Amino acid sequence: MENRASVFWWVSFNQSSASLEGPASLPNVKISEQKKLKSLVLSSSHLSSWPAYAPGQAILQNRKPCTLPEWRSTSKDHVPLSISKPRYLEDLESHLRKELQALDLNKGKKVQELKLQPYREVFEFFMEEFKTYKPLLASIKNEYELTIAHLREKIYSLEAVNGVLVTASDQCTRQILAFQEQEKIEITKLKEERLYLLKLIDKMKEEKCSLQTQVAKMRKAVAEEYLRYLNECDARKLLLIDLNEMYRQKEELKHAKVQDSKGEDTVKLTLALKIARQDLTKVQVELNTMRANYGDVVPRRDFELHEQKYNELAEKMSTLQKDFDDLQEEYETMLDVHKQVAEERDQFYNDLINVQRSSTPRPSWDKCAEVIAGGPERWKVVSEGKTSDQLVDILLEDLGTVLLREMDTFVGRGRSEKIPIYLRCDGLVRNKKLTKKDIVAILREIWKEKIALDQQRGKRSSLSEFFLNFFQRKYGDAFAFDWTYSIYESIKLYRTNEAMSLFHNILMGNLDEGVYHSHLLQLNNLLRELTAADTANTGELTNEQFTFALKAAFSFKTDEEIQELVEAAGHKLDNDSVMYKFLFLEDEEGKTEPLITKLKNQYTNEKKTFLQELRNELGTLMEVRPDDLRAAFCIVDHGLNEQILDSYICYAFQVPKEQLDPAVSIPIDALMQRLMAGDIRRQGTFSGDQKNLPPSHTAEETEVPTST
């Protein structure tokens, strides 16, 4: 009972001390002090039970209400209240006071941690001595330590938040002060401006009053001057009347004196004077009339002489004019002949160059059959009907394919602005080693997604940017350049493959994307006409029906071109019928039927002919302006509407219609090269949907007719 009372007293004391001191860290306990205090504890063989009675009533509050304390039931003697403390308790308190006095309390935030450490030591010594209650005391101590650590972490987190709040508060305060200073400056300026304007208004009011006063004075002065002028004018008129009257009277007196001296009749003289004046007036009128009518008249002899000279000169002029017209006609004829001779000369010169190049001993192409993959059988198939230039391309493709498959990586070309965006990377990229089948399938997927995206956006995007974005979306930025490099190196190599060659030319900017969409639209139009002609929906057409459908789809083509298309489709003839749906098939490597190839060749030839006529119309111009090109287009093709004509001119000068400058000119060679790369074709004899469809709008209405 005594031990329990002492334990509870010490726990209450330690709890009150810990609650007063607050959280702190656990500094190292001094080893010397621990040994000293431990020796003191061991030397004491007996622990006193003080206080074991009266203070225990205040501590042990949870006893049973019907029981009495043990000290009251065992002894009825009166116990004095003042009993000395146990020695061990005094030693612990003395040790605690020494430790607290030895602390340095000038360390700011660490004071509480230092003050808590002596209490921890005393509590640990207490637990070591009372081994029976050591587990309970240890658990109590651990709970307090955990609570202190938890509260310490909260304080640290709140200190960090407090620091952020202080920093934000300082920044906001500085901003508010800056705004207040700025507002004070602006308010001061506005006040000064207000004072200045008030002074200016007062000055203007004073000037207005002064001017009004001057105007009133001027009006008064003008009224006075006007009255004075009227008076003077009336006085002058009266004076003139008086003067004329005096002069008349003087003349009458003079005449009267003359008549008196001569003795003539005054009435007679007045009548004679009046008649003389009338005659003088009549003669003057006749004289003026004669001068007006005959002032420019020449003598008849001079007139006849000049008329004869004029007839002679007119006859000579007519003869010279006729000779000039004949010479002009001969000159134009000579110009036409000169152009034809120059064209023939250029053609002969080109033929001469070709003959000189081909005049060397022709190689034995059969030697290649043993080298290329597939042997003589494959060489016989691929070389049939090919020129030497085409055979060289085939060999380069075969050799390049072997070398390309042996390469595991490509070297990045860098990040310069001159490098295309789909090749703009550093380091090494992996070679995917794609086959023709894989590449053609990927290109079809790219075209399909790009057409859908352009239709959604309402405008055509750049193929080079879409080419890179396609693989970035599909494989991520880390592997996109592996695919772009692999496909680029492959399509650059396969020149004889139509799908790859067309994609490469558009990707490099050598050909406008409108050419691809125009070809798709042409095939779509042809398939629509063939399907309309197949009323039975059997997939077959007779030779006459097929020819009629071709003429309906391509009304601008000549009979010779229609016959070429019929002959190109002749391999699909079966008992005088055409399986027209098979004409649009395309194999896995992008190879099309002869009809599709013939349509592409005719499109290229028609464009070359149209642009040659355009260049002939431009004549000897070395620099071409927009107005010159517009006039030439209108002369060569009368069917061009305004929208298509503007699109052609804007494409030729590479600027929008709003930025087109009539004074800008470009060299004619560069102009023709740029037009050759675009979708430029004759519109005059087109019919159907193609007649009024500009090349810049064909992308939204194209679709692949059919493919395997």
SSE blueprint:
Blueprint: H1 2-21, H2 31-43, H3 54-59, H4 70-74, H5 87-102, H6 111-129, H7 134-262, H8 266-294, H9 300-358, H10 375-382, H11 388-406, E1 409-411, E2 428-430, H12 436-457, H13 463-475, H14 477-493, H15 498-507, H16 513-533, E3 541-542, H17 543-553, H18 559-568, E4 577-578, H19 594-618, E5 623-624, H20 626-636, H21 642-653, E6 666-667, H22 668-677
Antiparallel strand pairs: 1-2, 3-4, 5-6
Helix pairs in contact: 1-6, 5-6, 13-14, 14-15, 16-17, 17-18, 18-19, 19-20, 19-22, 20-21, 21-22
Please explain how this structure is put together.
This protein is mostly helical. Among the domains are: 2-132, no CATH class; 314-360; 407-510, no CATH class; 585-701. It has 22 helices and 6 strands. The chain has helices spanning 2-21, 31-43, 54-59, 70-74, 87-102, 111-129, 134-262, 266-294, 300-358, 375-382, 388-406, 436-457, 463-475, 477-493, 498-507, 513-533, 543-553, 559-568, 594-618, 626-636, 642-653, 668-677, and strands spanning 409-411, 428-430, 541-542, 577-578, 623-624, 666-667. It has a two-stranded antiparallel sheet. Helix 14 packs across helix 15. The longest helix has 129 residues, at 134-262.
Biggest sheet strand line-up:
1-2
Radius of gyration: 60 Å
Give the integer mean of the pLDDT values: 78
Tell me the number of strands: 6
Q: Please, how many helices? A: 22
**Structural class, judged by helices and strands?**
mainly alpha
Major sheet description: 2 strands, antiparallel
Residue windows where pLDDT falls under 50 for at least 5 positions:
1-81, 686-708
**Share of helical residues:** 55-70%
Strand content: under 5%
Shape verdict: flat
Report how far apart the termini are: 102 Å
Order of helical and strand elements = HHHHHHHHHHHEEHHHHHEHHEHEHHEH
